[in-house]
Amino acid sequence: MKLEGLDDPDSGEHFFCSSCGAQLETIDEISHHFCNKCKQLKAGLTEDEMFFCWACGKQLLQMGEVAQGLCHGCKASIIRKIQAPVKKSMPHSGQK
Length: 96
Prior knowledge:
Layout: H1 27-32, H2 36-44, E1 51-52, E2 59-60, H3 63-68, H4 72-83
Antiparallel strand pairs: 1-2
């Protein structure tokens, strides 16, 4: 399996597990973004032990996401919508 940017293994780039943060060693781990330990734990989970984002339905993998019930993408989207200025419609002068 060939991945972009991994042609030179001595390039000094390091990749980390998106669940536990451990450094990923193999191309298989890097392509899945999970270390083998987390991949096995994830496979062993039952449907009752999995958590999903209430906004989009994506499975939540990190404890910060699970605690809030939102994936990072939906959380960022909600924050952008809250921080966006609200446009107020101005009544036209001269019309009755």
